[in-house]
UniProtKB/TrEMBL annotation:
Pfam families: Lyase_aromatic. CDD domains: PAL-HAL. Belongs to the PAL/histidase family. It comes from Agreia pratensis. This is Histidine ammonia-lyase. It comes from the Bacteria. It catalyses: L-histidine = trans-urocanate + NH4(+).
């Protein structure tokens, strides 16, 4: 599965992790910006207290799951004390069974942080020294090599987390802070970190969580909040390029349907179109169109619904970020209980919801692009915005590219969470497939950024062709940004580098930043 990540921006900061919840912004800071993790003092006491309970059960003659028994379908098998260190090693080694391409560094850093966060709740029975070593590995920039396939999203993201636990043991492969692949043993030695010999329960505590899918959800929410603002900007540029009206975005009209996200998107469109000479050029209208097409007129409704879905996903993510996901867990009153909180359904569902949102926003964007290229619908623009239509093809095939991506996004919108394949000899007979949902969402977000980029590039050329009329301040700023890398209208030229340049602007948030540099903060 191929993904193009949003650009990391290094920043010097520290995220303090303890018994309380961390936020999406903390995940982004550690995963993308290299923030270091510090353990707060209250977490140390909580971890020590829960470990004391595990140590007491370890010497009990009665079997206790994950402490003195096997795992999964082997939960009824008693393991003698002298074999338990091997039990933990074997668990991690056997579960580090991923296959396929490497997973991106930011994803691995996010899942490592989230596992640390759960370990520090004091509900897993981990030893404090083990968590400290995990934190040290993350802060040293050591990134275990995790493979694309292996997680069913229940019991959590077992294989990805096992690859990380394996590295903590000094086994397997990692990349160091420079991105160089090497053995985990060599990387830990270079960083002055002793490999961990796992004690009772620790193997389970290190691998039994929803951290992989939750980390990717957190990163996706961060991406989409920026991309939906960029989609509003692109839509406004298209409204100008197509001689559309801003009247439909009026606040009183939007208030007749009090959907929160819709109001925010409409506000962005009003800000972008305010004072636009192009919009003013046909007010009072000499334009014969009574109503603009849905892809223009209804953009706040679609982009707004997308925003509301992202907000719902953030609500679910926030609850999960406050969770202690492990099995068994050490309860607040000192019991050690099996549970089903590792099931990834809550996260899996919203990952699928967001893939639907991405496909629909991209679909509407592509329709605006197509409209600008069709002389029957573009109100005076040349066919395909070509310099000499017939000799030149203009942006004809750029629209093909957008259409091809949108078609793929529709396929990626098919939910993963409705699928389930029984595993572990039918002990784990219903799984969430949340990891698969997260992986396809990352691909979908990359596709959305490219479709929006093609709309921005197309609208920029169309706005140039409206001269001597000029666009509003926000569109003008984006147009200046695009022209810093992409030439204006002219004879046909190699388009792929231009699409990639504008796609980079969109992914880095530069399109949003350009508009905000003239207009102030947008929603």
């Amino acid at each position: 599965m191929t993904t193009q990540l949003l650009t990391e921006q290094p920043i010097s900061t520290v995220v303090r992790v303890g018994t309380g919840a961390i936020g999406i912004e903390d995940v982004v800071a550690v995963a993308r910006r290299g923030a270091h993790v510090e353990i707060v003092d209250d977490a140390r006491a909580a971890v020590d207290a829960s470990r004391a309970i595990i140590d007491a059960l370890a010497v009990d003659v009665a079997p206790h799951y994950g402490i003195s028994t096997g795992f999964g379908a082997l939960a009824s098998t008693f393991i003698a004390g002298e074999q338990r260190a091997q039990l933990q090693r074997s668990l991690v080694r056997s579960h580090a069974a991923g296959s396929g391409p490497e997973v991106e560094r930011e994803v691995i850093r996010s899942l490592m942080l989230l596992r640390i966060s759960t370990l520090l709740t004091g509900r897993t029975g981990i030893r404090l020294a083990t968590v400290e070593s995990y934190v040290a590995m993350l802060n040293a920039g050591i990134t275990p090599i995790v493979r694309e396939y292996g997680s069913l999203g229940c019991s959590g993201d077992l294989a990805p987390l096992a690859h990380c636990a394996l590295a903590l043991m000094g086994e397997g492969e990692v990349r160091d802070a420079r991105g160089v692949a090497m053995s985990a043993a060599d990387a830990l030695d270079a960083a002055g970190i002793e490999p961990v010999v796992l004690a009772e329960k620790e193997g389970l505590a290190l691998i039994n969580g929803t951290d992989g899918m939750l980390g990717q959800l957190s990163l996706a929410i961060d991406d989409l909040r920026m991309l939906l603002t960029s989609a509003d900007i692109a839509a406004a540029m298209s409204v100008e390029a197509l001689l559309g009206t801003d009247a439909v975005f009026a606040a009183d009209l939007q208030a007749l349907r009090p959907q929160h996200g819709q109001a925010l998107s409409a506000s962005n469109l009003r800000a972008m179109l305010a004072g636009s000479p192009i919009v003013e050029s046909h007010r009072p209208s000499t334009h014969t169109v009574v109503q603009d097409a849905y892809s223009l007129r209804c953009s706040p409704q679609v982009h707004g619904a997308a925003r509301d879905t992202v907000d719902h996903a953030a609500l679910v993510a926030g609850r999960e970020l406050a969770s202690a996901v492990d099995n068994p867990v050490v309860t607040v009153d000192g019991r050690v209980e099996s549970n089903g909180n590792f099931h990834g359904a809550p996260v899996a569902y919203v990952l699928d919801f967001l893939a639907i949102v991405v496909a629909d926003v991209a679909s509407m964007s592509e329709r605006r692009t197509d409209r600008m290229l069709d002389p029957a619908r573009s109100h005076g623009l040349p066919a395909f915005l070509a310099h000499d239509a017939g000799v030149d093809s203009g942006l004809m095939i750029a629209q093909y590219t957008a259409a091809g991506i949108v078609s793929e996004l529709k396929r990626l919108a098919v939910p993963s969470s409705v699928d389930s394949i029984p595993s572990s000899a039918m002990q784990e007979d219903h799984v969430s497939m949340g990891w698969a949902g997260a992986r396809k969402l990352r691909t979908a977000i990359d596709g959305l950024s490219r479709v929006v980029a093609i709309e921005v590039m197309t609208a920029s050329r169309a706005l140039d062709l409206r001269a001597p009329l000029v666009p509003g301040a926000g569109s003008a700023a984006v147009l200046d940004l695009v022209r810093s890398e992409v030439e204006g209208p002219g004879p046909d030229r190699f388009l792929s580098p231009e699409i990639e340049a504008v796609a980079s602007f969109v992914r880095r948030g530069a399109v949003r930043d350009a508009a905000e540099s003239r207009l102030g903060p947008l929603n």
